[in-house]
Structures are given as structure tokens and as C-alpha cells.
Amino acid sequence: MKFEKSIIKTINQRTSKRAYKNLEIESSKLRKIKQILKKEFIGPFGGKSRFELIDCGINDPLVKRRLGTYGFIRGAHYFIIGILEQKERNIVDFGYCFEKIILKMTELGLGTVWLGGSFRYNQFKNCTNLKESEYIAAVSPVGYSLENPKAYEKIISWSIGSRKRKPWSKLFCLGDFSTPLTENIAGKYTTALEMVRIGPSAANKEPWRIVKEKKSNTYHFYLYFDRKQSTDNLPPMKQMDMGIALSHFELTVIEQKIGGKWIKKNPNIDTTRKNLYYIASWIGE
User: Fold this and answer.
1) 153, 19 in Cβ contact below 8 A?
2) Which of 52, 97, 170, 264 has the highest count of CB atoms within 10 angstroms of its CB?
3) Are residues 148 and 246 in the same domain?
4) Can you give the pTM of this predicted structure?
5) CB within 8 A of 113, min separation 6: which ones?
6) Any idea what the CATH number is for the domain that residue 202 is in?
7) Each residue of 49-76: b (16+ CB within 10 Å) or e?
């Protein structure tokens, strides 16, 4: 996906928006969104996903505001629906692709917010061209957000700590999980890691942990949990969060003209009693 503006500025600019103006998106912008969503979306490890823009055709603004979101989203006319095949297991790839769309919407001046579980599945299913072999993995409203949201929306943002982020010492390590990675050692990858750090995640838990190899620009991405999980059944939203992390990291290094590629080859760093699960590695210059 091509971005017209600095992705670093866009990532910094983007915040979750839950309250929207009662305004339609201009027809020219709607066409652009639909063109973007028509493209084939494949993640770095081959996972395929597709996306639809929907307006359920409800004329009552009050009903529209409550459409399938348990009251968490207000005023949105349109939603982007993220769809996966039932057999698709590359949920990280889905998150990677959807976050690029989210950032593109930000570039277009539109608000968004990731919704994984806080939407009524059947209501959205009835508004999509969903095949029997598919399911809705996540959705996001898209539209013009309120500049001064009411106290209700502010309370939601406060309750999930939407402005808080963990420090580098909690997220990034050098060699193993016992030594924090400093910005000085990260060097030219400092900005890419910072864009990961400030990225959105479910309940703002920031489940990503990254280890840089001591003698190379190889970065290993891990998924962290508060308690032990089955490797065969990792929660989908947490995997999507890791896709967001991969997307932010890659988009930033591309903008900074830093070469590299993704691979899946577990470095077997000791994760004993740490509830960490290997996701992917960036092999950089």
C-alpha cells in the first residue's frame, strides 16, 4: 500500500476514535477507500484477508450510532469489516494488513478504532457479503471524529489507559530477556521500535516483546501474556496486536530506507517461566 505522507507522522498522529460527527464521507473519498479495500491483502507470511466498507442503510442516526457496538461507538456511518477464511490461521498477517488500512484512513483525515470483541457479530454479518467459509475477524468505524468528545468517550479512553505506554526497558531487550535494549544500541532502528511502542493494542496491554541480537540487526518479535497459554490456541486479538507491531516496524524502516526482511526461524532464546511466544524475526542490514 502506498502512503502519500510520512508514515512516522501518521503513526504519531493516529489515536483511537469512538465518537463521530453525523457527517457522510465525501463521494470522492469513499471511492478512494473502496479502491484501497479492493486490493489483495497478503501478510508477510502468506496469510490472506479481505476487507469491505459497509453502510447498513439505516436512516435513523440514533440507531446508526448504536449499530452493533454495545454503545462503545457513537455517530459512525461507515465501518470497515475485516474478513478471514475459517481455515486461515495467520492472524498476525491479518493484523499486519488491517493496521495498514487503519493508517491509510488516518492519512485521509478519518478516524478509526480497532474493534475485536465489542461488536454484535450477527448485525455486521447481515451487512456484508460473507461467504459460508468466512468469518469477521475485526471491524473499525471510519469517519470524521468529534474534536471534543463528550465525557462518556473520555471515560472509556481513560479506563483502558489509551494514552499510556510502557517504557523501552519493559519492551525491548538485547541478546536475551534479561538485558534492556537502549536507544543508543538500537541506533538507526530506534524510530522503528518507538513506532512499535506507541502502537495500539487490545486494552493497551502492549503484548509485544522484542529482542535484538548482540552482533547483528536481527530483531526477534515475541508475544507476551500474563499467564501461560497454549501455543496452538493463542488469542486472536493478541495475534492481531503483533501484526500491528510488525506493520509499524516495517513501514518505518521502509520510510527510512533501511533494508531487511521477515523470516520465521525461532532463535530459541530462553523464555522459561516468562509466558513468551515467538512470532517472527526481522533480518536487517
Assistant:
1) yes
2) 97
3) no
4) 0.92
5) 16, 17, 18, 73, 140, 141
6) 3.40.109.10
7) bbbbbbebeeeeeeebbbbbbeebbbbb
Q: In sequence order, what are the residues at sequence separation of 6 or more whose Cβ sits closer than 8 angstroms to the Cβ of residue 239? A: 91, 92, 94, 95, 223
Q: What angle do CA 204, 209, 214 make, to 5 degrees?
A: 150
Q: Determine the Cα angle at 84 with ends 81 and 85, to 5°.
A: 145
Cβ atoms of residues 242 and 208 within 8 Å: yes
* Side chain identity, residue 270: D
166 CB burial (10 A radius; 0-12, 13-18, 19+): middle
Same structural domain, 109 and 212: no
Q: Which three cell numbers stand for residue 42?
A: 497478503
Kindly state whether residues 203 and 143 are assigned to the same domain: no
Average pLDDT per block of 10 residues along the chain, 285 residues long? 96 93 92 96 97 76 52 83 95 98 98 86 86 95 83 49 81 97 98 98 94 98 90 90 98 98 96 92 95
Q: Give the range of the structural domain holding residue 45, as residue numbers without chain letter.
A: 7-156
- Beta-bridged to residue 139, according to DSSP, are 81, 115
Domain end call among 156, 179, 199: 156
